[in-house]
Design brief:
The structure holds 2 protein chains of 2 kinds. By secondary structure, chain A is mainly beta. Chain A has no helices and 12 strands. In chain A, the strands form 3 sheets. In chain A, strands 2, 5, 6, 10, 11 and 12 form a 6-stranded mixed beta sheet that branches. A 4-stranded antiparallel beta sheet of chain A has the order 3-9-8-7, with no helix packed on it. In chain B, the strands form 2 sheets. In chain B, strands 2, 4, 5, 6, 9, 10 and 11 form a 7-stranded mixed beta sheet that branches. A 4-stranded antiparallel beta sheet of chain B has the order 1-3-8-7, with no helix packed on it. Classes of the chains: A mainly beta, B mainly beta. At the A-B interface, strand 6 of A face strand 5 and strand 10 of B.
Chain lengths: ~110, ~110
């Protein structure tokens, strides 16, 4: 069965500094990977996805993610953090069974300090 | 487009009561699903539907029923509420079954069972 791990419950970064939110995965076969963001009292919003092709994927709000097959990682990055980036971030991998659903990590709370 | 809508936003139930959480989407998406979100556990799939008239169980289906009589609507029924069902519930939809499609989430229903 597929799984996703987000090793950090909380990440703090100063505004203007680069940020990284870590994600590792375990799947059999080709991975389909996603990042979502959740702002307080809101639903999840899609940020970006890796399906195939370039290992560096660009998404919404200036975020990007680097796919590394040998390390089975899909870390989320942004060159310069904003206070408004503070939110809960989820990594997810597509279930390749009949449901084709998403298996989510436990989430990482990102706080950008002014 | 309104996207994915959910009602109510908040609900308090007593143990043993039943209720229906409503979900609707106006994007003509074939695929709809229900998740529950609990602290530190990410999102877990309850039930899903690949089209009108077709539903199936996810990871945590016990205590919940669904039906899909139209493409637009996918209600979730709690048969006899238990405190363990206290959670935030999210409805999601996507275009179809293919692995590359991202999911769109509703704003959530926060349910408390006393």
């Amino acid at each position: 069965a597929q799984s996703v791990a987000q090793p950090e419950d909380q990440v703090n970064v100063a505004e203007g500094n680069p940020l990284t939110v870590k994600c590792t995965y375990s799947v059999s076969g080709n991975p389909y990977l996603f990042w979502y963001v959740q702002y307080p009292n809101r639903g999840l919003q899609f940020l970006l996805k890796y399906i195939t092709g370039d290992n560096l994927v660009k998404g919404s709000y200036g975020f990007e993610a680097e796919f590394n097959k040998s390390q089975t990682s899909f870390h989320l990055k942004k060159p310069s953090a904003l206070v408004s980036d503070s939110a809960l971030y989820f990594c997810a991998v597509r279930d390749m069974g009949s449901a084709r659903q998403l298996t989510f990590g436990s989430g990482t709370q990102l706080t950008v300090l002014p | 487009n309104a996207g994915v809508t959910q009602t109510p936003k908040f609900q308090v139930l007593k143990t043993g009561q039943s209720m229906t959480l409503q979900c609707a989407q106006d994007m003509n998406h074939e695929y709809m699903s229900w998740y529950r979100q609990d602290p530190g556990m990410g999102l877990r799939l309850i039930h899903y539907s690949v089209g009108a008239g077709i539903t199936d169980q996810g990871e945590v289906p016990n205590g919940y029923n669904v039906s899909r009589s139209t493409t637009e609507d996918f209600p979730l029924r709690l048969l006899s509420a238990a405190p363990s069902q206290t959670s935030v519930y999210f409805c999601a939809s996507r275009v179809g079954l293919a692995e590359s499609y991202e999911q769109y989430f509703g704003p959530g229903t926060r349910l408390t069972v006393t």
